[in-house]
Amino acid sequence: MREFTYKSRDGEVRVLINVDHSAAIEGVLGNYTGCVAFVSRSIVDKVRTKCPVVPVVDGEEGKSIESALSIVRSAHELGIDRDGLFIGVGGGSVLDVVGFSASIYLRGVDYVNAPTTMLSMVDASLGGKTGVNALGLKNIIGVIRQPRYVIVDLSFLESLPTPNYIDGFAEVIKYGVTLDKDLLDQVINRSGELLSKDRVILEEVIYRSLRDKAEIVKADELDRAGVRAVLNYGHTVGHAIEAVTNFSVSHGKAVALGMICESRIGVRLGYTPRDVPDILLSALSKFDLINKVDIDVNGLVNAMVRDKKRSGDFIKLPVVTDVGKWSLVKVGVGELVRLVIEECRSMP
To answer: Domain 189-344: what homologous superfamily?
Structure first.
C-alpha cells in the first residue's frame, strides 16, 4: 500500500493506492451526513459499500449533461445535503460525470474517486478536471474541483478485459516521456510483469504516475500558468481522433497515436530529438497501443482547430525537448494543420 497527499485550493487530497475500496470508503464516511455511490453499471456486483448504490451508464455514452442531471436528481431524492458525499466508482467517464455532478449539486459537495480501470487509476481519478461531452467535443462543459480522496483498489483490474487494461499505459508512457525518464524506463523494461498484472510493479507504476501528475496539478491547478499543459501531450491530436472516429478508437489508442503525431511535429518544429518518435513507438507497441487507423485527415484538422486549447490563431502545444523534459510552444493554427497533414496522414 502506498499513499500521499497534495494540497489544493479545495483542501487536502489524500491518495491511497493498493487498498481495499470497501474499508477505505468506510473510513471516510464518519465526516459526512450522508453518502451515495454512483457506480458503473457493469461492476455493481463488485462494489461493497454501506452507501446507497445508484448504477450509472459508463463509457462516452454516459458522459453527458443528461447523465449529470440524472445523478443530481438521484442525490436529491436520497436527501443528500451540503455535508453529504458523492462517491464515483468506475472508469474515467464515470468519475468525470460524477465529479462534475458533485461540483454543481447544491453549489458543490465533496466527492471521492474510486477508479476501476487502469486508465482512470493513472489519470482521470486525480487532478479535479470534471466534465461532460457536448457538440461532438470531449469535456467541453466542466469545472475544476478536486476530490477529497482517491481510492485505488487494484483488485478491480483482475477482471478488466485486456484492451481496457492496456489503454491506461498510454497515459503512463505520456508521464514518462514528458516528465519522468525513470518511469518510462521502468515501464519498458518491466512490460511483461505489467501485462501480467503483477501487483508489486503495478502499485509502483500507478504511484509514480499519480505523484508526477499531482506535482503538475499543484503547480497549475486551474490550468492558467501553462504548466498543466504537459498533461495534454498527445491529446490535441488524440481528442481529434476520438471525435472524427465517433469515439470508436479508445482513448488510450487515440492518445498513443496523438503522441506519435505530436512527437513528429516536435521534430519538424526543431524542439524534439529525432529519436523520440521511435522511442515512443517502441514503448507503445509493447502494450499493443499502436494500430493503423483510417482517419479522414480533413475531419481530423477540423476537430483539432476547435480544440479548447486554441487561443485566437494559435494553439499551445506541449513538446518533448528530451525524454523526461518538455516545453510549451505556441504554434500557428495554419502551421499546425499543415504539419498534421504532412506528418500524420499515415499513422503510425
So the answer is: Dehydroquinate synthase-like - alpha domain (1.20.1090.10)
